[in-house]
Amino acid sequence: MTGNARVPATEITGVYGALVKTFSKRMLGEVPESLGIMWQNVPVLKASMRLGQKARKWNECDMDLKSYAHMAVAALVGCSACLDLGYFQAHNEGLDVAKAREVPRWRESGVFTPLERDVMDYAEAMTQTPPTVTDELSARLLEQLGAPALVELTAFAAMANQMARANVALGIEAEGLSASCGLPPLAQPSGVASPA
Predict the structure, then answer these.
(1) What is the predicted pLDDT for the residue at 191?
(2) Per residue in 30-82, pLDDT tens?
(3) CATH superfamily entry for domain 2-180
(4) For the chain, which residues make up each domain, given as ranges?
């Protein structure tokens, strides 16, 4: 993982460090190397973790939909760490793993409902620079989800953008979380050759 990292990992120390390591082991089964990179600036890490913990408590929008949105953002940005974590979390939270593994090629896959496709289209449109969200797409989602869920989905996709772009910029890559629990490999995005 750290072979392409642009910031060196540092030792996770102190009382807070012990808590973070315990939480990571409980949640992921291990302490990811990327945590040592983020440990270089503990206030930033704390703020990011707090936001993530609060976002996990949001409940206006279906968790599967938010997972697909997060993974669609990660696939578009090219964040292998986010895709790996999203797939791992889908497995551990009882979400539809068959669908989660297809998110990188959702446009060609036949497993998604029209609503799920709209959600991933919306997440990708938010991710474009400049954003390409249309009134029509927003209106369809508003009608299907309602205002509270659409606001939550939007915030969740924005947060996914922040995480994915930070990971890519720092050179943080997948650490094999999904492989560690025996999940089949993620589908390759269209036009990407499978690794030999």
Answers:
(1) 55
(2) 999 999 999 999 999 999 999 999 999 999 999 999 999 999 999 999 999 99
(3) AhpD-like (1.20.1290.10)
(4) 2-180
pLDDT tens digits for range 133-162 = 999 999 999 999 999 999 999 999 999 999
CA distance 4 to 82: 16
Q: Which amino acid is at 30?
A: E
CB 88 within 8 A of CB 28: yes
Cβ neighbours around 80 below 10 Å, total = 18
